Amino acid sequence: MVPALLLFALLRSTLTWASVDVDNKGQCLCNVLLPATTFPTHTMDRLDQTSVQISHTLELETSKVQGYESKLIIYTERLENLKLRVEEMEKDPNKMTELELENLKIEIKQVEALIAELRGSVQTSSPTFHILQAEIHNVTTSLTQLESYDKNKVLELRRKYAELQQDIVECEELQDESFTPEIGSCNHGGISNISMPYIVQLGAHVNEGYLYGGWGRDSKPKPGFEEMYWYSGYTSPYTYNLYLYSDYTNLLLRQQFKYFVNDYKGYGNNNIMHGNYYYYNCYNTGNLCRINATTFAVETRVLPDAAWNNKFSYSSATYQDFDFAADENGLWVIYATEASKGNMVLSKINVDAFSVEQTWVTNIFRRRVSNAFMVCGVLYATRQINLNIEEIFYKYDTKTGKESYISIPFNKQYEGFVYLDYNPADQRLYMYSKGYYIYYNVKFQKLQQQVEVSMYS
């Protein structure tokens, strides 16, 4: 298994080429070629120095201009005085003595010299301002190029990082007996293991304070929307918005093609997109809600006997009364009732009629569980082992009614998480934790390798 820290280090590097091989001991090895040039920090340094120089030059030129302004005031006053004296002399030349006339000539020459000096200073400063304008233009151009470089480089890095992750997954598949069945197939013996966490980025709000919410793909997308992603995030357990992205790239760029605020608010986090509908727990009720993502029409249905108002919520999140889940067999809702004494109850939903089709009652207390999800008609429940490890510890098969304890640990990047759902469209687990998008690849046992420990054996 390749250490997560190595992958995170690779993500931060500007990779040009990377591959995964197996050494003579059968271990996966990452081969990485770093480019000759990484992010142009030298350009950033030059821009920083240029900025300081421009600032210093502007300060000097500003002080000069202030000095010119003071001199102009003095020169204007002296010229005005000379003008008055010349006018007096013109009125009565006989009153002007030869000495006074000589002094006047000297003063006029002095003012001419001062004006010539001032003109020279202004002419010297004028090119300086032109140079400053050119420098500012160059800085702006460089910043624009850097901005474009950064955006393109980030997308390139994410693509290469995803390719490297896929290579590692394929390498790990060669080392164990687990496998990945065809999308939509249940020809396997259940979950074998969960991959390392793939941390995508912060949600659309770019704020770790948005602790509540979820994200993922439509588990049964309409034609033309197979690549669509959704996100819904909040600072409290109350749900009220939905962001839709046409594909993974636009999710990363946070460029939604549709966004709406829901007038019919909801509770909880394990909401889901299924068949172009967004399913959630209606606010302050024991009812199911769904929104048509095209028309924004809202429908509600009573979930019979369901406990609500945070009575039997998951241990990892408050007000998680209903947990919507999708798998290869359709749509489900996981909850608890008074009659079940808080044990987990599972209902299959008929999406056409938007009604409960069939219900199963388990023997696992819901508050013991961190979260749960469905795969091929089997309910899987998780619990916290420590700050960094979560464990799939329980499963219930709706086809046989058999339940058992299992142990499939997987890593967490953060201690707390509020959303965990399997998506049959890509066989991934989607997690929402501390405002971050996280996902896992799911591996399955071959049928002959299926091993279980009965809860009652």
Outline the fold blueprint:
Elements: H1 4-12, E1 17-22, E2 28-33, H2 41-91, H3 98-175, E3 191-194, E4 198-202, E5 212-217, E6 229-234, E7 238-245, H4 248-253, E8 258-274, E9 277-282, E10 287-292, E11 298-302, E12 323-327, E13 330-336, E14 343-350, E15 355-365, E16 371-375, E17 378-384, E18 389-397, E19 403-411, E20 419-423, E21 428-433, E22 436-444, E23 453-454
Antiparallel strand pairs: 1-2, 3-22, 4-22, 5-6, 6-7, 7-8, 8-9, 9-10, 10-11, 12-13, 13-14, 14-15, 16-17, 17-18, 18-19, 19-23, 20-21, 21-22
Helix pairs in contact: 1-3, 2-3
What does this protein look like?
By secondary structure, the protein is an alpha+beta fold. It has 2 domains: 1-175; 191-454, Neuraminidase, CATH 2.120.10. It has 4 helices and 23 strands. A 7-stranded antiparallel beta sheet has the order 5-6-7-8-9-10-11. Strands 3, 4, 20, 21 and 22 form a 5-stranded antiparallel beta sheet that branches. The chain has a 5-stranded antiparallel beta sheet with strand order 16-17-18-19-23, with no helix packed on it. A hairpin with a 5-residue loop joins strand 10 (287-292) and strand 11 (298-302). The protein is elongated and about 130 Å long. It starts with a helix and ends with a strand. The model is unreliable at 1-15 and 449-454 (pLDDT under 50).
Give me a quick take on this structure.
The protein has 457 residues and is an alpha+beta fold.
Beta-strand portion reads 25-35%
CATH topology of the largest domain: Neuraminidase
What is the class of the largest domain in the CATH system?
Mainly Beta
Return the average pLDDT rounded to an integer: 80
Total helical elements: 4
Number of domains: 2
What Rg, in angstroms, do the CA atoms define? 36 Å
CATH architecture descriptor text of the largest domain: 6 Propeller
Helix/strand/pairing category: alpha+beta
Identify the overall geometry: elongated
Low-confidence runs of at least 5 consecutive residues: 1-15, 449-454
What's the story with the biggest beta sheet? 7 strands, antiparallel
Strand order of the largest sheet: 5-6-7-8-9-10-11
User: What distance separates the N and C termini?
Assistant: 34 Å
Give the beta-strand count: 23
Helix content: 25-40%
